[in-house]
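pinning this so it doesn't scroll away 📌
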Amino acid sequence: MNFADYSSTVLKEIEQTLKQVDGSKLSEFSVQLWQSPKVFVAGAGRTGLVMRCFAMRLMHLGLYVQILGDTLTGAMKKEDCLLIGSGSGETPSLVSIAEKAQELGVRIVLFGINPDSSIGKLASDCLRIPAPSPKLNHAAACHSIQPMGSLFEQSLLLTLDSLVGVMMHQKGMNSKSMFLNHANVE
C-alpha cells in the first residue's frame, strides 16, 4: 500500500471512530473543567503524550493544570478534577492513581475504550473512544490497519482538541487570546 492509500485509510478510520464519540459529553466536561480549581492529567506511553498535549492547551485556556508524575505536581484536593487517558483502562500505574484520587474524593474522568475497566469503574464519568486495542479481549466497533493503539491515540488527540474548541467557544476565546498564555521564554 502506498502513502496516499494508507493515509487515506487512516483518516477514514479516525472519522469512523470520532462519529461514535458522544459529543454531548464534551460540553458537560468543559463546564466541569472551568469550575475545577485544579485539573490533573495522567496517561502512560503514547496516550500519556496526548494527555500532555491536552494539558498544554488547557493551560493556554487559562486553567490551572498539573501533569501527574512531574516533579512540580502539587496536592490534589476534593474539588479538583483528574483526567485519565487510557485505552484499556487497566494500566496498573493509572489504576493506582485513580484509586488514590477516589480516596481523596476527586472527580475522575476517563477517556478510554472500555468504560467497564478498572479505571472506568472508579471514574465519575467516562468518554468512550471506540477504537481497537490489542490490550482488550473484546471486539471493537471498528478495525484498524494501524499498529497497536494508534487509532485510539489519534482519536483521543482529536477528541481533546475538539474539547478545547468547545471551551474556547464557551468563553469567547480565540488563538490570539490563548497565545497570551503561550511560553514567552523559550
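📌 and the second one:
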Amino acid sequence: MKRAIGLAALTVLELPHHEQVSAAAQAGYSHVGLRLIPVAGQPVIHALDAFEVERRLADTGVGVLDVEVFRLTPQTNIKEFEAVMATAQRLGAAELLVHGADSSEARLIETFGRLCDLAAGYGLSANLEPMPWVDVSNLAKAMRVLDGAARANGGLLVDAIHFFRAGDSPQALAKVPRRFLRYTQLCDARPERPADMQEIIRQARSDRLFPGQGGLDLKGLLRALPGEIPISLEIPISKRMEPLERARRALEA
C-alpha cells in the first residue's frame, strides 16, 4: 500500500485553494490539505471557490486529506461548523484538524464530543492537535480530552514541531492506541527549544525546516506511529521561495 502524502495548507498558504490543489499535483503529492477556517487573529487570504476546487481535484486526481482549523473555545457554537463540514464532505475530505483553546478541560471534553458527533454525520473524523501555546498543549492533555470524550471518530494529530517543542517523546507516543492516529504532520526545526513562547510561535508559523535540515528526531517519531500513516508536509519557511518550488522541496526531503 502506497503511503498518502499531503501538501498541507500552511506550506503554500498564499495560493488560492484551487491553486494549492494544482501545486500538489504538479509537485507529485497524492493529497492536499485545505484551510477553510482561518486561524484566530489571522486574515482570510482567499475566499473558497468550491466549484473550482472540485474541478481541479477531478482533473488532477489529488484527494483532500484534511480541512482546518476547527478551534474550540469557551464561546464555540458547534453548529456554526456545519457548513464547513458539509463542504469538507463535498470535497472528499476524511479528516478535520482541531485546536483546543479552552482552559476548562471538562467543558472542552464536552465540546469536542459534540464536534465529533456533528462530524460523524458527514463521515469525518476530528483530530485534536496539541500546540505549546494553546490549552491543549501536549500529548498528555490531548489524550485526556480524547479519552474523556470517548468518540470513535476522535483522533490525535501529531505535528512534529509542536510535539517536540512541547517536550513530548516518541516513547510516550508509542503507547497511544493506534485507533487515535489517522495522519500526522511532518517538518523539521532547529533542535533547541526557544525559551520565548513568541519565538516558538514564529518558528511554527513561518520558519520551519525541510526534513533532514534540522535536529528533530523524525525517525523516532515515525517509528512510534503506524507504519503507513498518511503524512501531511506542513513546512512554512522564511526563505523566499516560490510556492511550487517549496512544495517540491518538501516532498523531495
